[in-house]
Design brief:
single chain; 173 residues; alpha+beta; 2 domains; 47% helix; elongated
Length: 173
C-alpha cells in the first residue's frame, strides 16, 4: 500500500509501516540475543554482546521513534527532491543540480542513482562520514547518491513517473 501525501506542489512518500515493523522486530530480537550473550557468554563474547546491545538497541530506539512519528522518505516538488530514505541520505537536491539518474541493479537489489552536475561542490556540503560513503558509491556505481527501492513505498518505475511530473529527467536503465 502506497502511503503518500499528494497535491499540485509536492508529493510526500512515506516508508512502509510493515517494513518498519519487521526492522523493529529484528532489532529487538538482536538486542535480546546480545543481552543473552552478555549474561551467559564467555568474557570474549560479553564484549561482542555489549557492542550488539549498543548497536541493535540504538537501532531499535531510532526505528521505534520513526515508526511512531513517521517522516517522509522522499519529497518531490517543482524545485527538487528531498531524500530522507536512509540514515546517510544527501538531503535536498535541486533539479538543476542533477546531471542524470540511473537505475542500478546490485546483488538482487535495485537503486535509483543520482549524479549531480558538480560532484565536488555537492560532496563538500556533506559531513566527513557521508563524503566517504558517497565516494565509495561513486567509485562502485558511478553516482554518489543512491535511493534503495526497499526504502521507499513503491517500485522505481512509478517513482520515475512521479519525478517526471515535476521535472523531465532522462533515466538510464
Amino acid at each position: 500500500m502506497l502511503k503518500a501525501s499528494m497535491d499540485e506542489k509536492e508529493i510526500k512518500l512515506f516508508p512502509s509501516k510493515s517494513k518498519f515493523f519487521l526492522y523493529i522486530l529484528g532489532a529487538l530480537i538482536m538486542s535480546f540475543v546480545s543481552f543473552h550473550t552478555v549474561v551467559f557468554g564467555s568474557v570474549d563474547l560479553k564484549i561482542v554482546g555489549i557492542m550488539g546491545i549498543f548497536f541493535f538497541g540504538g537501532g531499535f530506539i531510532l526505528l521505534l521513534f520513526r515508526f511512531v512519528k513517521p517522516s517522509p522518505a522522499l519529497i518531490l516538488n517543482r524545485s527538487g527532491i528531498l531524500d530522507n530514505s536512509a540514515i546517510v541520505s544527501p538531503g535536498y537536491l535541486k533539479w538543476e543540480e542533477i546531471s542524470r539518474m540511473k537505475i542500478i541493479n546490485y546483488r538482487g537489489k535495485r537503486f535509483l542513482g543520482i549524479l549531480p552536475k558538480d560532484i565536488e561542490i555537492n560532496l563538500s556540503k556533506q559531513n566527513l562520514l557521508k563524503r566517504i560513503l558517497y565516494q565509495i558509491n561513486l567509485s562502485s556505481f558511478g553516482v554518489p547518491y543512491i535511493i534503495a527501492e526497499q526504502n521507499i513505498p513503491l517500485k522505481l518505475e512509478p517513482l520515475i513517473s512521479l519525478i517526471n511530473k515535476f521535472h523531465h529527467m532522462e533515466i538510464e536503465a
